[in-house]
């Protein structure tokens, strides 16, 4: 009878799951900006074991140095365009360069990372029965014709432009997520992330907040790309990480916008950085790059209602936190 049957023997691969209640979490791209903050937050929970897979294209071991050697932490040099065999319960799939300079550097590789990389992580999720979260982007809305953007908007994206490797790559990644969900029953979560800023951003990665802060600290002109009336909405990284964890833990597949609805023109951003960091610095108008979206602001009703999430850090409070980190890395202390 059933009572006398021995308990099922645990699979040797997943045995730790049978004997412990630990959650094993894979973070691809975990050595990057958002990923490393996510690692910090997940490692705070003693029930989590965290595995990072990263090829260090735009990330660095330095971002994870406080965890290297920790018994619940593992770092693997791995490119997600290659298959990956690990046994995990959750996958946060972030691997992909996020800054235009880096994703345009080798556009074919960017597409491979988005398409083959996401396919591999979905194959992994299917094999081990893990839940997988994709960090998609507001760029799926392209140069939006509706403003602000909610998740039902299908976007206005140039399929053959210099940004397409990223925008269209993420759009295919979203499609793959939904097809694995419908066809194979994989548990998926999709976050559409809007511009995020904070400590550990690459200093010279060309993104606007990191550029302006580094320029203000170095006493160089703040380079506003013409016309300067284009807008973005900036989310502080701790809020972003909180949103991603809630989405992973919740019951909704998404896509869900995660971002801060506070909208600023690039001229306003430059003026704010100047006022907060270096009132002496000049603001210079420079040439823009092709296909630059003119406006971007998330509607976050879904995140509020389905995840109970909304951002808490205002731009004026987040910028000084980032300034501290940049001053340390640039070796330029605050003037007394
Ligand atoms: P990041 O460039 O700092 O981090 C990306 C990480 O992925 C890096 O550590 C990089 O080395 C790694 N990586 C890149 N290609 C890889 C590959 N083929 N194999 C393995 N690792 C690879 O960028 P981030 O700002 O932390 O962005 C993280 C995720 O969030 C990305 O998927 C990005 O598209 C998305 N996102 C970010 C923003 C933002 O404003 N930062 C906005 C929208 C979406
Ligand atoms: N894959 C992986 N790790 C796994 C399982 C699969 O990287 O643990 C990769 C696999 O190499 C394949 C992709 O995920 O390229 C899709 O896998 P799936 O099983 O869905 O498709 P198939 O292998 O049948 O093409
Ligand atoms: N931008 C700018 N000065 C810079 C870098 C960027 O004015 O030194 C502008 C850019 O034209 C765009 C906005 O800032 O309108 C955001 O650019 P970023 O590359 O940070 O992010 P994304 O375009 O991906 O939102």
Automatic annotation (TrEMBL):
It catalyses: UDP-alpha-D-glucuronate + H(+) = UDP-alpha-D-xylose + CO2. Gene3D superfamilies: NAD(P)-binding Rossmann-like Domain. GO terms for biological process: D-xylose metabolic process. It is found in: Cytoplasm. InterPro entries: NAD(P)-bd_dom, NAD(P)-bd_dom_sf, UXS-like. The keyword Lyase applies. GO terms for cellular component: cytoplasm. Pathway: Nucleotide-sugar biosynthesis; UDP-alpha-D-xylose biosynthesis; UDP-alpha-D-xylose from UDP-alpha-D-glucuronate: step 1/1. GO terms for molecular function: NAD+ binding; UDP-glucuronate decarboxylase activity. Keywords: Cytoplasm, Decarboxylase, Lyase, NAD. Its cofactor is NAD(+). It is an enzyme of class 4 (lyase). The keyword Cytoplasm applies. Residues 26-320 form the NAD(P)-binding domain. It comes from the Eukaryota. Its EC number is 4.1.1.35. CDD domains: UGD_SDR_e. Belongs to the NAD(P)-dependent epimerase/dehydratase family. UDP-glucuronic acid decarboxylase subfamily. Catalyzes the NAD-dependent decarboxylation of UDP-glucuronic acid to UDP-xylose. Necessary for the biosynthesis of the core tetrasaccharide in glycosaminoglycan biosynthesis. This is UDP-glucuronate decarboxylase. It comes from Quercus suber. The gene is UXS6.
């Amino acid at each position: 009878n059933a009572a006398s049957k021995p308990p099922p023997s645990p699979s040797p691969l997943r045995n730790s799951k049978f004997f412990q209640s630990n959650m094993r979490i894979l973070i691809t791209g975990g050595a990057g900006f958002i990923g490393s903050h996510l690692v910090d937050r997940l490692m705070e929970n003693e029930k989590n074991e965290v595995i990072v897979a990263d090829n260090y294209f735009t990330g660095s071991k330095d971002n994870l140095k406080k965890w290297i050697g920790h018994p619940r932490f593992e770092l693997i040099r791995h490119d997600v365009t290659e298959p990956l065999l690990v046994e995990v319960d959750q996958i946060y799939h972030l691997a992909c360069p996020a800054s235009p300079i880096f994703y345009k550097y080798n556009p074919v590789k960017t597409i491979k990372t988005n398409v083959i990389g996401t396919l591999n992580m979905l194959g992994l999720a299917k094999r081990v029965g893990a839940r997988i979260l994709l960090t998609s982007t507001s760029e799926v809305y392209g140069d939006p014709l509706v403003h602000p953007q909610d998740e039902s908007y299908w976007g206005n994206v140039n399929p053959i432009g210099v940004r397409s490797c990223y925008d269209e790559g993420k759009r295919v990644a979203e499609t793959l997520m939904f097809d694995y969900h419908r066809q194979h029953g994989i548990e998926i979560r999709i976050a559409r992330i809007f511009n995020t800023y904070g400590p550990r951003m690459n200093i010279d990665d060309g993104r606007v907040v990191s550029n302006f802060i580094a320029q203000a600290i170095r006493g160089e002109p703040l380079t506003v790309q013409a016309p300067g009336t284009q807008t973005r909405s900036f989310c502080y990284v701790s809020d972003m990480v909180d949103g991603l964890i809630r989405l992973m833990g919740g019951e909704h597949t998404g896509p869900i916008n995660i971002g801060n609805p506070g909208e600023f023109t690039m001229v306003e951003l430059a003026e704010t950085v100047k006022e907060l960091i270096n009132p002496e610095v000049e603001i210079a108008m420079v040439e823009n790059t092709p296909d630059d979206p003119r406006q971007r602001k998330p509607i976050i009703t879904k995140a509020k209602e389905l995840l109970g999430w909304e951002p808490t850090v205002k731009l004026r409070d987040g910028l000084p936190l980032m300034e501290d980190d940049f001053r340390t890395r640039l070796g330029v202390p605050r003037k007394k």
